From TrEMBL:
It comes from the Bacteria. InterPro entries: PsdUridine_synth_cat_dom_sf (IPR020103), PsdUridine_synth_RsuA/RluA (IPR006145), RluA_PseudoU_synthase (IPR050188). This is RNA pseudouridylate synthase. It comes from Faecalicatena contorta. The lineage of its organism: Bacteria, Bacillati, Bacillota, Clostridia, Lachnospirales. Belongs to the pseudouridine synthase RluA family. GO terms for molecular function: catalytic activity, acting on RNA; pseudouridine synthase activity; RNA binding. It catalyses: a uridine in RNA = a pseudouridine in RNA. GO terms for biological process: pseudouridine synthesis; RNA processing. It holds the Pfam family PseudoU_synth_2. PANTHER family: MITOCHONDRIAL RNA PSEUDOURIDINE SYNTHASE, PSEUDOURIDYLATE SYNTHASE RPUSD4, MITOCHONDRIAL. SUPFAM superfamilies: Pseudouridine synthase. The keyword Isomerase applies.
Amino acid sequence: MTPDILFEDPDIIVCRKPSGVPTQSSRIGTPDMVSILKNHIYKNSPQKQPPYLAVIHRLDQPVEGLLVFAKTQAAAKNLNKQLTEYGFGKHYRALLDGIPSCPEGDLEDYLIKDSRTNSSRICSSNTAGAKKALLHYKVIETQPPYSLAEITLKTGRHHQIRVQMAHMGTPIAGDKKYGIQKKHSAIGTLQLFACRLTFYHPRTNEHMEFHLNTPEDSMKSLQTP
């Protein structure tokens, strides 16, 4: 697979992850973004040395969108610091199966991951292993029974957007893991897109911003009763 690269220099790679391709996988023979990009770096390197590539953040396998990877240890250290402390912005668009009662708001929950089922759930703050999950959402369009929302992650928990939006009663359309399949829903794929990514370049400190065009007319194409 040829990677869709938006930006590359000696320090970082910013690319578009297709839906269905994992960010990183331990399964033998399963293509993932790490192996695809390592092959790309190796083929374009005159030294033909095993390339260094660090995962900074991940997208769920069904999610399409923007990812940045570090090509050096120094870049990885800087980007990981931004991710946990400042400057790193992950922005999404989601088609929701339902319309939130409040058109804009902040969600704060505690999540716990179950590795056996590769799922997460809302829990109390005193649950062992619980982690705080924060996000901001804003509805930008509605076409009952659906709504289109912009979502900004403030933390990066496992399946966070999918779990929190489902807990609010408006799951991501097409989410077979966390959504309730309603009679009116004919959407077969998860409608969640990582559409904007912002951070500071780990070496030059330049502000970097990347945009991804989400599928056009997603609301207009819906077949509703």
